Amino acid sequence: MISFNCIVQEGVVSDELRAALAAELARISASVLNIPSDDVEVGYYEVRHGFGFRGGEVSTTSTVRGQLSEPIDQDTRVDLMTQIYEMWCGKTGCSVDEFLVSVRDPQ
Fold first, then answer.
1. What are phi and psi of 95, to 5 degrees?
2. Is 77 left (phi over 0), alpha (psi -120 to 50) or beta?
3. What is the reported pTM?
4. What are 40's strand-pairing partners?
């Protein structure tokens, strides 16, 4: 199982797009981790406009934080994060400097 906490800035990722991104996170995770897509949870937290800054400007950055229930090897982690990065930037149009993805093993 993997759960994602997606932190987005208000006005940057629409509700309609969030649903599509969640579906893609489930698809990618199921494929890479060889798990059922039902074992993927996705939640969003929205930072109100003006409450997040990057480089002295109002932030447009999105963060996707994954938490695994079972550890994975580094090659699998890199594959998962690369596919998530490519999908997110492709669907949102964000630049490399506007996206952060991480995937943690269980604590």
1. -90, 170
2. alpha
3. 0.92
4. 2
